[in-house]
Amino acid sequence: MTELLTTAVTRRRFLIGAGGAVMVMAAPSARAQFVAEGEARSAAMRAAIKAIVGENSLPQGRIKIELPPLVENGNAVPLSIAVESPMTDADHVKAIHVFTEKNPQPNVAVFQLGPRAGTADIQTRMRLADTQLVVAVAEMSDGSFWRDEVEVVVTLAACLEES
Question: Where are the beta strands (DSSP E) in 7-144?
């Protein structure tokens, strides 16, 4: 009986050790794939921003994005964006663009504004697929662009379908 019990423990240890060896060997390739996917999504977000901004500079300022730094559920994350602008015919916000790094589509929302809006303040909710960078870009009537960005930690992800 003890001989049979010793053999079972040895087999169990062997299987655990073999599984651990496979995990150790697979970990670098899994990490490399994870990093590559992250870089591809970051590149997609940069490309989406460049499609809007073109070759114009994109300084930080005049726009403020507010998101909670830690979100328990990514299905309905409160988002608030405000842009400093007098909202006159000569100086107003034309559009506010919202981009995310890890959602299936990097260009999440576009809000069209004009001088009749009175203020350039947006409040809404958005879905976030994972912990990621959220970027807001304000397009001004004089052709300039301004940005702000926030890193949001999401514990329960939304938007998990592939694009």
Answer: 63-66, 70-73, 77-83, 93-100, 107-112, 120-126, 132-140
User: Quick one: pLDDT at residue 157?
Assistant: 77
- Average pLDDT on 130-135 reads 94
Query: What are the CA-CA distances from residue 123 to residues 29, 66, 72, 77 (Å)?
Result: 41, 9, 19, 11
Torsion sign over Cα 160, 65, 86, 54: negative
Residue 60 belongs to domain with CATH number: 2.60.40.2470
User: How far is the C-alpha of 91 from the C-alpha of 57, rounded, in Å?
Assistant: 18
Token pair in block for residue 56: 């114009």
Poorest-pLDDT segment among 14-18, 62-66, 95-99, 123-127: 14-18
Number of separate domains in the chain: 1
Q: Which domain holds residue 127?
A: 41-156
In a domain, 24, yes or no: no
In a domain, 104, yes or no: yes
Helix (H, G, I), strand (E, B) or coil at 157: coil
* pTM (2 d.p.): 0.75
Question: How much is the pLDDT for 24?
Answer: 64
**How many other CB atoms are there within 10 angstroms of residue 52's CB atom?**
16
Paired tokens of 71: 């979100």
